């Protein structure tokens, strides 16, 4: 078990370090998600009363859109010099590569969230009626679901032609349940509903996270097989 | 070896006969529904199309698993062909539904769980076909399509669950109440279900045949190139 974890963290660290040095996706992701925020507020010009209704959807849409940018880089990074083949020939198993990369993508996405989240409160002059702790938990588990499916499907599309355009097309339909649940739960926290009114949504996100943790572990080998 | 062509002939023949019967039953025999009028007849095409679509996607799921397990080319061809047929029938469901809905409910579309799920289902398998199309001629990429065929199918029940909760928390505009069908309508529906199921297998076989011929031509081409 300790060895397993060490192998996973090797990939995790490698991805984070190379990202930290190149700073190619995180900077783009942050800028893009702030940009979406600004554009949306121009497009909808939310008044005080409507802001609580549209903001949860807006937050998640901007996260998903900027997250896609990072996901597309995950495996593109390994294409130079056949790096992926190199990694596969080490003792690290394919599912460990998957988990390491998912963890590194998650950290990058959370970084984007930490920067952009306060901006929502500033730009939209929002006062939160529910608890901040629960909101953070929802953001966290929702992001986990998105990253788990996203990292898996990014591996799938990285093998195909026109892969950067393809990823959102195949990812968004599968994301629908977790996205819907996260938006509903977030908006419930914003409007200050009691926890038992949106607990089903949180459970749904957790079930989704679990299913899409197990499925990639079963299937990831097939994506990495080299003929 | 003569058995398979014979079975195919029987399948095509019975589909033909059953299609004519179904058309007769729907347009001549079954009485016109009193409240909704002739538009209710869409029901006899809408429901069987939905059934065929789900059947087709289930076949994609099973064939994808079999393909990953055995690596036998035929399962990949079954999965791909079945997905094509499934997407066409889902499109029929999505087109006939609003036509009926406009007449019966007064609106083209509502975010009812079943409608939402069908729409997402259509997108998922469209994505599957896109993957498969950009995977042409490369065996590794057929594996990618199979993986997506499995993941996509697993996702469908969660989509339905999410859509149902979404609508129970929001006000429900239209309650899908179960009206007991009179016998004549039930018989017609059953014949239509049978017909569409037979039609599914006919289309599946045709689509598989096309795929097989395409691959054969590809192989011949690459062989000819090598010889050249």
Could you please describe the fold and organization of this structure?
The complex is a heterodimer of chains A (227) and B (228). Chain A contains eight helices and no strands. With 227 residues, chain A is mainly alpha-helical. Chain B starts with a helix and ends with a helix. About 2% of the residues of chain B have low confidence. Chain B has one domain. Chain B is built from six helices and no strands. Chain B is an all-alpha fold. Chains A and B meet through helix 6, helix 7 and helix 8 of A and helix 4 and helix 5 of B.
Chain-wise SSE layout:
The complex is a heterodimer of chains A (227) and B (228).
Chain A: H1 2-22, H2 25-44, H3 48-76, H4 83-88, H5 94-123, H6 132-157, H7 163-191, H8 195-224
Chain B: H1 3-29, H2 43-70, H3 73-104, H4 113-133, H5 139-169, H6 183-227
Helix pairs in contact in B: 1-6, 2-3, 2-5, 2-6, 3-4, 3-6, 4-5
């Amino acid at each position: 078990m300790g060895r397993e974890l060490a192998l996973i963290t090797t990939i995790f660290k490698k991805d984070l370090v190379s990202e930290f040095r190149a700073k190619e996706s995180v900077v783009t992701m942050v800028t893009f998600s702030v940009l979406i925020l600004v554009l949306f507020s121009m497009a909808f010009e939310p008044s005080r009363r409507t802001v609580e209704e549209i903001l949860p959807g807006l937050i998640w849409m901007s996260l998903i859109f900027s997250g896609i940018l990072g996901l597309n880089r995950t495996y593109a990074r390994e294409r130079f010099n056949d790096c992926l083949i190199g990694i596969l020939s080490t003792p690290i198993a394919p599912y460990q590569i998957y988990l390491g990369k998912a963890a590194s993508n998650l950290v990058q996405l959370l970084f984007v969230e930490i920067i952009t989240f306060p901006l929502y409160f500033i730009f939209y002059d929002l006062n939160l009626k529910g608890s901040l702790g629960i909101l953070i938990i929802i953001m966290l588990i929702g992001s986990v679901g998105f990253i788990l499916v996203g990292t898996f499907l990014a591996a799938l599309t990285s093998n195909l032609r026109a892969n950067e355009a393809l990823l959102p097309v195949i990812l968004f339909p599968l994301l629908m349940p977790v996205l819907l649940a996260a938006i509903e739960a977030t908006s419930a926290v914003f409007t200050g509903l009691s926890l038992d009114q949106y607990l089903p949504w949180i459970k749904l996100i957790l079930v989704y996270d679990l299913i899409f943790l197990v499925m990639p572990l079963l299937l990831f080998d097939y994506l990495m097989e080299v003929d | 070896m003569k058995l398979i062509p014979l079975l195919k002939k029987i399948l095509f023949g019975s589909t033909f006969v059953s299609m004519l019967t179904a058309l007769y039953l729907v347009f001549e025999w079954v009485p016109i529904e009193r409240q909704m009028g002739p538009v209710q007849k869409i029901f006899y095409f809408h429901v069987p199309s939905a059934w065929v679509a789900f059947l087709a996607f289930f076949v994609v799921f099973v064939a994808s698993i079999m393909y990953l397990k055995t690596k036998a080319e035929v399962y990949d061809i079954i999965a791909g062909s079945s997905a094509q047929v499934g997407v066409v029938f889902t499109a029929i469901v999505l087109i006939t539904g609003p036509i009926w809905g406009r007449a019966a409910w007064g609106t083209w579309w509502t975010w009812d769980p079943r409608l939402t799920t069908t729409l997402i289902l259509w997108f998922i398998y469209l994505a599957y076909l896109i993957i498969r199309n950009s995977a042409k001629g490369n065996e590794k990429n057929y594996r990618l399509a199979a993986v997506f065929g499995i993941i996509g199918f697993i996702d469908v029940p969660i989509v339905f669950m999410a859509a149902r909760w979404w609508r129970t928390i929001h006000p429900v505009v239209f309650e899908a109440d179960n009206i007991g069908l009179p016998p004549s309508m039930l018989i017609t529906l059953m014949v239509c279900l049978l017909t569409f199921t037979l039609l599914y297998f006919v289309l599946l076989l045709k689509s598989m045949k096309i795929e097989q011929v395409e691959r054969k031509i590809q192989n011949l081409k690459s062989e000819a190139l090598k010889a050249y």
